[in-house]
Backbone:
């Protein structure tokens, strides 16, 4: 369950707004209660309709697999007796019913909730992935938290998020920059949170036992590699650099790199893309130059 204060309580419409692609939604039916604030939230997977009937929790998002609905010649069927039972059961109490791994919402279900507050949608994702994505989405919207795949370093209070595919050199560049006066904050997974000042802060996903992965050494404790003064527990995220494979017209010299925007928890973070090169020391130098340029630009604003 995700409890919420009155000030936090969003509506289901607020939570699902703009999330169709992320949740794999291919059909939805808006219930009358979509704008109603949610005081608490349960995201629950059910194996079948019987389990759904037996549930009595309010403010629930119910996830059902498409196999919960029998098929006859490729069409979903639903016995009349069960349909009547369904009409008297959960729909009016559930905030939302999601059909996982489905191309469409069963017609009987649309009819069953036609006069209820319940929101319906079908998703291309299976019930496990859908549950994970819903949980992550609501954690972002309600708690202002998310996790990012990348590394985080800081310089004089400015946090720089380093993004890129596995093996692109994120950790190697970060460690090289630490040698040049930067501070290490996180490797591989960055836990990001929006605080009351409106800024996004990042830290290691396991701050009490931070780890990093070094090529040819594997996963090691940060304290075994870096001195304590080179490690920061948390930093504000001000800028990002994405390490990309190959080169293009917009990825050459520093001046040719257009500024990009990365949305983190509905907060725009500026950044650029840099090409991955075989010489990681040169790439670290380019990364340092990009960061210093950004810091100068921000001071001038």
Residues:
């Amino acid at each position: 369950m995700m409890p919420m204060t009155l000030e936090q309580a969003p509506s289901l419409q607020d939570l699902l707004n703009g999330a169709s692609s992320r949740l794999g939604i291919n059909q939805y039916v808006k219930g009358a209660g979509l704008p109603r604030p949610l005081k608490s939230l349960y995201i629950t997977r059910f194996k079948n309709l019987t389990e759904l009937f037996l549930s009595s929790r309010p403010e629930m998002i119910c996830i059902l697999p498409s196999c919960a609905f029998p098929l006859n010649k490729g069409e979903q069927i639903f016995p009349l007796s069960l349909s009547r039972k369904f009409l008297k059961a959960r729909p009016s109490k559930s905030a939302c019913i999601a059909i996982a791994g489905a191309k469409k919402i069963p017609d009987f279900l649309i009819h069953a909730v036609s006069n209820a507050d319940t929101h319906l949608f079908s998703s291309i994702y299976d019930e496990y992935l859908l549950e994970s994505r819903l949980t992550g989405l609501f954690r972002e919207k309600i708690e202002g938290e998310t996790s990012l795949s990348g590394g985080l370093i800081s310089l004089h209070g400015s946090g720089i998020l380093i993004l890129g595919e596995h093996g692109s050199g994120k950790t190697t560049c970060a460690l090289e920059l630490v040698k040049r006066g930067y501070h290490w904050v996180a490797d591989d997974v960055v836990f990001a949170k929006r605080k009351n000042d409106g800024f996004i802060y990042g830290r290691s996903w396991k701050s009490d036992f931070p780890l990093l992965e070094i090529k040819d050494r594997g996963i090691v404790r940060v304290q075994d590699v870096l001195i304590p003064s080179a490690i920061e527990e948390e930093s504000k995220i001000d800028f990002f650099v994405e390490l990309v494979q190959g080169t293009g017209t917009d990825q050459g010299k520093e001046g040719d790199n257009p500024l990009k925007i990365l949305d983190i928890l509905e907060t725009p973070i500026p950044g650029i893309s840099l090409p991955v090169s075989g010489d990681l020391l040169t790439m670290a130098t380019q990364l340092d130059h990009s960061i210093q340029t950004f810091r100068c630009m921000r001071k001038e604003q």
User: Anything to note?
Assistant: The first strand starts at residue 2 and ends at 3. The chain has two domains: 2-143, 145-300.
